[in-house]
Design a protein that fits this description.
heterodimer, A: about 250 residues, alpha/beta, Rossmann fold, 4-stranded antiparallel β-sheet, 9 helices, about 40% helix, about 25% strand, B: about 220 residues, mainly alpha, about 85% helix, globular
Chain lengths: ~250, ~220
């Protein structure tokens, strides 16, 4: 029998994260099912990227527990990282190496076999084959983000973490991204992404989570039906955040 | 085990490839060390006695100070491109990242020494091309890389990292520098392995201790 914990892709309990005196995540609880696309929405500073970095194990929470695919991340980091692919805000590529060299290097880090074939498959998926032998520093930011996405996909992770993946991408690349996310969902794998483009996110998502001041402010299993409510929460918080910022000046 | 060695080699090889293309570290280390040697040849009356007396100290002081410059640069490149985070995303233990980076630093300083030591031999007119010198050089470089990689990782996010790294690095490598200078003194005076055995043992003990301890501490430095 499969336990409830293993049916969840992500289970976060009472996560707290402070940066100095600033509380970014406050006792945040969140459970995300496998095989679904979840969008994290929220204004700047709501804690979306911090939460994603904690799930990617790049940032340690001050307290709280995290399970990914039923495994406690604090007990078996490398095993959890093997299940997770991340394309975060920065492309995180070696500018002095070619796209192919970058992908080959990271394939070695993930101990992958059949690397040439994997590079061919994934570079075709994200449309970077013509630039495979170009140095990363010669690529535009959008192309670099595509390479970062190819790197995140190469080991076929069970959980894909995307931080504002559409930023810097042209409309064709956004369509390509949507196709990849759909493909992931239909293969039973899980995607967690942050975005500021609410309408597009709600079209794409199975779940929507609005973070407000480091906590879950709204959680919807049917974001298309709840679109009006989500927009309302999001807009109200945007306005109050903007007013506070303006008042502080 | 083979898988871990492959990861360490892949990180070291990647650093070497970037260095071959950019020549950031080796040029800085070799250039700085050569400058120190040249300045001392003008500052000191280099008769045979003086050269044997001060030469080993000048050589290793030059390499140690120059090494700091290179170590700083090697880690700064990972942080500037956020590529250290990409390594942290991979399903490998943090100590493999440390050992890979230390291997890269070991290779850079070794290449710099291949340039610096022959120039030292010519400028100071000393015979250094002996197996003993090779052993001293490799052991000292390994210790520099072991300590320097750890402290470079610690200081890389600090605003005044150029100041902080030598302040942390140089006091800690003092026993290793002493071993290197004393052993090199024996080499230039034509003595045998047995005369320098205790210094070589000190260098081996230093390297083993710092490789193990640094690999353990490194994981805590990477978090946040």
């Amino acid at each position: 029998m499969v336990s409830q914990s293993t049916q969840l892709a992500v289970k976060v309990e009472s996560i707290v994260k402070n940066f100095g005196d600033t509380a970014v995540l406050r006792e945040l609880d969140l459970s995300l099912p496998t095989g679904e696309v979840t969008v994290l929405l929220g204004t700047n500073g709501a804690g979306k990227s911090t939460l994603l970095r904690i799930l990617a194990m790049l940032t340690q929470p001050d307290s709280g527990t995290i399970e990914i695919m039923g495994t406690d991340v604090s007990k078996n980091g490398p095993a959890v990282r093997a299940l997770t692919g991340s394309a975060l805000h920065s492309p995180m590529l070696y500018a002095g190496m070619t796209v192919r060299e970058n992908l080959m290097f990271f394939a070695e880090m993930y101990r992958l076999t059949g690397v040439d074939e994997l590079i061919a498959q994934n570079s075709s998926k994200v449309g970077i084959e013509p630039r495979l032998d170009d140095r990363v520093r010669t690529l535009s930011h959008g192309f670099q983000k595509r390479v970062a996405l190819a790197r995140a996909l190469m080991h076929e992770p069970q959980l894909l973490l995307l931080d504002e993946p559409e930023s810097g991408l042209d409309s064709q690349s956004v369509e390509m991204l949507d196709r990849i996310i759909d493909e992931y969902r239909s293969s039973g794998r899980t995607v967690v992404m942050t975005t500021h483009i609410v309408e597009h996110a709600l079209d794409l998502a199975d779940c929507a989570v609005v973070l407000l001041g480091g906590r879950v402010g709204f959680n919807s299993d049917s974001p298309k039906q709840d679109q009006a409510a989500i927009q309302e929460v999001y807009s109200a918080h945007s306005e109050s955040t903007y007013s506070r910022a303006a008042g502080a000046q | 085990m083979r898988g871990s060695l492959a990861i360490i080699w892949a990180i070291g090889r990647k650093d070497l490839l970037l260095e071959i293309r950019n020549k950031d570290v080796v040029v800085a280390v070799a250039g700085f060390a050569l400058l120190v040697l040249v300045i001392f040849t003008f500052a000191i009356d280099l008769n045979q006695g003086n050269a044997k007396l001060v030469g080993p100290g000048v050589l290793w002081a030059g390499i140690a100070f120059a090494g700091v410059t290179g170590l700083n640069r090697a880690f700064a490149l990972e942080v500037e491109g956020n590529t250290l985070e990409a390594l942290m995303l991979a399903p490998i233990s943090r100590d493999l990242i440390y050992l890979g980076k230390a291997l890269g630093n070991f290779l850079f300083i070794t290449v710099a020494q291949i340039i610096v030591i022959p120039v030292f031999a010519v400028l100071f007119n000393l015979v250094v091309f002996r197996w003993e010198m090779l052993a001293i050089s490799l052991l000292t470089t390994l210790g520099f890389a072991a300590v320097g990689t750890l402290f470079a990782a610690m200081s890389v996010r600090i605003r005044a990292r150029e100041v902080m790294l030598p302040l942390l690095f140089l006091p800690v490598v003092t026993p290793l520098l002493m071993a290197a200078v004393e052993s090199t003194s024996h080499v230039v005076n034509g003595r045998s392995w047995s005369d320098m055995a205790q210094w070589l043992q000190l260098a081996v003990a230093f390297d083993v201790a710092f490789l193990v301890v640094s690999a353990f501490i490194f994981q805590y430095i990477l978090e946040d």
